[in-house]
């Protein structure tokens, strides 16, 4: 704890006269007790803050589940919900056994951790159980992103295999590179041993979490191929719309909230993002200026504000952009735009000004719209736009930091370093931007080499894609024992509209 109370018997005894030594010893003992209480309280507050942030980030799993369920057709609802549950369950076990050790177990070469497997010799001087829980919540978020890209046509065993491999090995190695003090590209390394004198700045995971999950999903969807009926033989894209816009909106808001723990999540995801971003500080009781009202708590508040502004700007830009392109006001597009803004700001949420977050959100929306246009051109099918949203917007977020990071905030968050490179547009030169571009390239390369290979092997072993019959009937019925609820599927000929009738054959006209 900074500013600890100190007391010396020798100093006090000179001032106290008769029985000075005994009196001074008593006074110093009492002050020492008070000092220990303050230290204990600081640790308790910081750990409680980190635990609460971990709970918020974990709540994003509910957001992902609702978002995924609403984005797929009703006949695959149970399947996608089950995969979200297993992302957390399998991810928890494999991150405990291997993932945390690979990510934060300490290393000598900067590539991979090699201590604390199955939390052996844990807690350490630098990490407690709350830190493990928080990092596990991040790991399963990456796996949840990937599941959206390969939804509606993937065998259940493939989900189990890729989720375990991603959370137990692929993601932890990347987080070690950029978040562990030992990582080769970490900004926490000694000043004279950092990549381009700065290290890559990825505060809450635009690259470490979002790009990892998005690139993994990209390879899964590419190797698996599009869903049947998604593209005509001519190449024209056919929209296979999700069955519930209500679930999409609910999931978006939950993610929004969770993002405030991830950075500071749509509503279930919005909820989660308030744990995702501000929670990444991991501690709150750190003053920037002793004796003032300005400290880490101020940075946490600023992080929540930048997260909000980026998401809101991206949502509005997507709303009007898609209106110009399609002629419709589409709530699903707006929700994806909002999340794209969050994914982009996650890297720099703590080190940029609020006005810069608006720029980040605006550009993130354009990146998402452009990636979706490109996906249609190359006949790439991603039911949740996960690769475009998390991969594309995550990459833009890393570039954004290299352009707009502020020197003052970098020194507050990452430790004061004379001459530290900062954002190019803020007058800090191009070194930070160079480090950010290196991160983009190595994340793409690592995830492509590992997850691309895994999906290719699964395909060769006939463990990746379900049969055409199962895909047309829906996995809820063929793989999970029945539908999630009674519904009318637009793909079913028996429910198409009769000529001259405003109602499907099996529907009852609405009551007036």
TrEMBL record:
The chain crosses the membrane at residues 48-72, 93-112, 132-150, 157-179, 199-223, 244-262, 437-458. Its main location: membrane. PROSITE patterns: AMMONIUM_TRANSP. Keywords: Ammonia transport, Membrane, Transmembrane, Transmembrane helix, Transport. The keyword Transmembrane helix applies. It is found in: Membrane. It is a multi-pass membrane protein. InterPro entries: Ammonium/urea_transptr, Ammonium_transpt_CS, NH4_transpt_AmtB-like_dom. Residues 493-512 are annotated as: Disordered. Residues 49-265 form the Ammonium transporter AmtB-like domain. It comes from the Eukaryota. The keyword Transmembrane applies. Belongs to the ammonia transporter channel (TC 1.A.11.2) family. This is Ammonium transporter 1 member 3-like isoform X2.
């Amino acid at each position: 704890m900074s500013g600890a109370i100190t007391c010396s018997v020798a100093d006090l005894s000179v001032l106290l006269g008769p029985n000075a030594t005994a009196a001074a010893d008593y006074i110093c003992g009492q002050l020492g007790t008070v000092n220990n209480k303050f230290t204990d309280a600081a640790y308790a507050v910081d750990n409680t803050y980190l635990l609460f942030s971990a709970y918020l980030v974990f709540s994003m799993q509910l957001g992902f589940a609702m978002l995924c369920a609403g984005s797929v057709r009703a006949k695959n609802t149970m399947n996608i919900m089950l995969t979200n549950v297993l992302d957390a369950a399998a991810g928890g076990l494999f991150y405990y056994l291997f993932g945390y050790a690979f990510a934060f177990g300490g290393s000598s070469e900067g590539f991979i951790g090699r201590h604390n497997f199955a939390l052996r010799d844990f807690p350490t001087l630098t990490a407690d159980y709350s830190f493990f829980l928080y990092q596990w919540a991040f790991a399963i978020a990456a796996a949840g992103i990937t599941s959206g890209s390969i939804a509606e046509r993937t065998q259940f065993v493939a989900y189990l295999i890729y989720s375990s491999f991603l959370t137990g090995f692929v993601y932890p190695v990347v987080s070690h590179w950029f978040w562990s003090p030992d990582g080769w590209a970490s900004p926490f390394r000694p000043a004279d041993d950092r990549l381009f004198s700065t290290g890559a700045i990825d505060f809450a995971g635009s690259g470490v979490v979002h790009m990892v999950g998005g690139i993994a999903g990209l390879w899964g969807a590419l190797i698996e191929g599009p869903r049947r009926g998604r593209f005509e033989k001519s190449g024209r894209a056919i929209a296979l719309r999700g069955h519930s816009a209500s679930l999409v909106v609910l999931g978006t808001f939950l993610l929004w909230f969770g993002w405030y723990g991830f950075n500071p999540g749509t509503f279930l995801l919005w909820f989660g993002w308030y744990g995702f971003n501000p929670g990444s500080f991991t501690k709150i009781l750190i003053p920037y200026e002793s004796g003032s009202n300005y400290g880490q708590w101020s940075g946490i508040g600023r992080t929540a504000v930048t997260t909000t502004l980026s998401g809101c700007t991206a949502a509005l830009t997507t709303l009007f952009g898609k209106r110009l392109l399609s002629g419709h006001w589409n709530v699903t597009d707006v929700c994806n735009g909002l999340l794209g803004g969050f994914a982009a700001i996650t890297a720099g949420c703590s080190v940029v000004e609020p006005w810069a977050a608006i720029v980040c959100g605006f550009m993130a929306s354009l990146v998402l719209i452009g990636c979706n246009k490109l996906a249609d051109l190359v006949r790439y099918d991603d039911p949740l736009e996960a690769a475009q949203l998390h991969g594309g917007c995550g990459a833009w977020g890393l570039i954004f930091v290299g352009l707009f990071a502020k020197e003052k905030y970098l020194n507050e968050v990452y430790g004061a370093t004379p001459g530290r490179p900062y954002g190019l547009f803020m007058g800090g030169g191009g070194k930070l931007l160079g480090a950010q571009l290196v991160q983009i390239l190595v994340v793409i390369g690592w995830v492509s080499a590992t997850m691309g290979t895994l999906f290719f092997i699964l395909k060769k072993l006939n463990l990746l894609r379900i049969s055409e019959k199962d895909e047309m009937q829906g996995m809820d019925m063929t793989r999970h024992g029945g539908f999630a609820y009674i519904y009318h599927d637009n793909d079913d000929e028996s429910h198409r509209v009769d000529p001259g009738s405003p109602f499907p054959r099996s529907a009852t006209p609405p009551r007036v």
